[in-house]
Amino acid sequence: MTDRGDSPEPPFAELLPLAPQGGAREAVGGPWTARALDHLLRYLPVLLMGALAALSWWLVKNTPVPGDTKAAQALRHEPDYTMRGFSVVSYTPSGALRSRLEGDVMQHYPDTDTIEVEGVRLRAVDETGRVTLGSAQRALSNGDATQVRLTGGARVIREPGPGEGPSARLEIRGEFLELFTETERVRSHLPVTLFTGRGEMRAGSLDYSHLDRIGQLSGRVSGELLATPQAAP
To answer: What are the structural domains, with CATH classification, of the chain?
Structure first.
């Protein structure tokens, strides 16, 4: 780890705008796009919040408390706790799996109160039995798990629910995905690709608010969509 001294760069500094100021923003808000984004991302922030909150609670209970001498020293951007090959599992009151968060290496940084996970993998199941999968080379979360960044080959997959066909599978891929669990918002200032049973769409950026039910694909937007069986001649 590189020592950044006593003034580390804020890990959650404000991102660049989703599109250059004054530049064109092409919004896609058609029925199919809105439904696809809503179905894929509806429960993702809530599920991530639960999994990462469990991890944060575990850290608080198990991280050694530094002595008075160390506490008096200026904090450096160095991890105070490291876990390798960890797994955090949460269950419903009935004992069914709710979420499983796994990673190759996890480190907690006390100076910024952030958690970094290398090789992060998530599996979550909602109340209907539908599975959401997530993975990335790296995840960065603030201390209360209200802001989570997935970077490096980030993938979020919404598997078909009980009784649904393969066409109900939805997936988002990108090098960067940022999730705000309290406001249920997902955004990326980098290109993303959205896959569904009806085809795929590519965009220069993504901004989705579940509370407002508004999804926006901006920048260079393109894709190939198949006609639904009902619309076929």
So the answer is: 31-64+76-223 (2.60.450.10)
